[in-house]
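Exercise: predict the fold of this chain.
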Amino acid sequence: MLGVSGVPRIGETIIIEASNTTATTGALFLGASRTMWSGAPLPFNLTAIGFPGCFINSSWDLAVIMNPVAPVKLTIPVDTSLGGAVVFAQWALAGDPSAGSLVTTAAVQLTVAGL
């Protein structure tokens, strides 16, 4: 499960975490779209490549790899042009013995508030 603490506001810090998992490795992906990624429509079902029930729900434009999985702190820069910007976040997790070799969370939309 993906959780967000804090408000995505210019100059503030938010925490994005994966909970209810014993995964040993994970990647937090941040992206700019929930409809297309590298020419492919989203969501993209990963069943055909061996990960049943897993989907890429947003573009994976930036990755933060965590081993072990831990909350990720992101500080929104003090830049007024970021007000209204939209970013999507999704975790991909590996090594959870209660799940398959890879599991993905839903994606969350974060809209940056102004100062």
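Check your answer against the key: Residues 2-111 form a domain with the Immunoglobulin-like fold (CATH 2.60.40).
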